[in-house]
């Protein structure tokens, strides 16, 4: 007869007893994570708006000629650095030099013509003096003959001849005076270099001089060459697009936020950005400088016609312009069109949603293409002096 083993099993805790502390620990961990996330959302995330629909933008300076001509030299290529005032493209100068020489000759001719008019004034004045003397003599002769004719000491024919002579002298004097007046109307006692004919020719010299200078096409700003299309030997006109110069520092970011994210976005709020080209290791800093006045669809070539019957609501996006810290751009340069991720700190909503201050200065300016006319004026003065003597 067999006996049943009634030995007590090893003293191990039941499965349920082991599971309960683990579940409790897991519940506590979930609660802690939820509380931590809630605090993080309340303290941080609730005061931020972010988007990855954001791209670097900047000025693209289109380089076009101011005069027509044939391209003789292209000084820079894509990716090259250029400084303000550098010559980008040179045109053949032959035609411009010929035009300048022609205008210089025309100015010299105008100076001599005006000089001749001024000399004629003195000639007409001398002629008037001569005519007045002749008139005085004729009137004196007539005055002597009239008493003689009354006493019939001379014939009537001789008296009539004296009268005709006096009348002719008076008419000659009137003609001489009108000639002087007509000639003075051309000069009006104005200095030679201020005569209209001379000034018109001088303006033509300035135009030709400017056209010659503009055969060298210069860069208006510092930047990098992109989209070069001009080739040596090409015939270009003022409407031709030659290349683009893109500045490396005057860049910004257009962040396209959903309309549901913009209720608390204000001008001046701080912004942090990361660019895909550098990753999360590089952080840019900036601020909101403005919100655009229309969505992308409103300003598109073919705006949506929402009045049609098949309308479907789509959440719109509005571009928000973000300026970048120049020091960050200096350390880590960006390029137009690069993708970024933008986060706006909206904790302070005291700013304005729309700009309320007008600009007092131009947003952009450059005097690199402004030509000073001192050299042209000196050339004009030399021509006037040489032909006025």
Show the helix and strand layout:
Layout: H1 15-43, E1 48-58, E2 61-63, E3 69-74, E4 81-82, E5 87-91, H2 94-150, H3 156-187, H4 196-213, E6 216-218, E7 223-226, E8 235-236, E9 243-246, E10 251-258, E11 270-275, E12 279-291, E13 317-324, H5 326-331, E14 339-345, H6 374-387
Antiparallel strand pairs: 1-10, 1-14, 2-9, 3-5, 3-8, 4-7, 5-6, 7-9, 10-13, 11-12, 11-14, 12-13
Helix pairs in contact: 2-3, 2-4, 2-6
Which series of helices and strands comes N to C?
HEEEEEHHHEEEEEEEEHEH
* Count of helical stretches: 6
Strand content bin: 15-25%
> SS-based structural class?
alpha+beta
Q: Can you characterise this structure?
A:
- It contains 6 helices and 14 strands.
- It is an alpha+beta fold and 389 residues long.
- Among the domains are: 50-59 and 248-298 and 315-345, Efflux pump adaptor protein, beta barrel domain (Elongation Factor Tu (Ef-tu), domain 3, Beta Barrel), CATH 2.40.30.170; 61-92 and 213-245, Beta Barrel (OB fold (Dihydrolipoamide Acetyltransferase, E2P)), CATH 2.40.50; 95-198.
- The strands form 3 sheets. The chain has a 6-stranded antiparallel beta barrel. A 4-stranded antiparallel sheet has the order 2-9-7-4, with no helix packed on it. A 4-stranded antiparallel sheet has the order 6-5-3-8, with no helix packed on it.
- β11 and β12 form a beta hairpin.
- α2 packs antiparallel against α3, α2 packs antiparallel against α4 (196-213) and α2 (94-150) crosses α6.
- The longest helix has 57 residues, at 94-150.
- The protein starts with 14 loop residues before the first helix and ends with a helix.
- The mean pLDDT is 85.
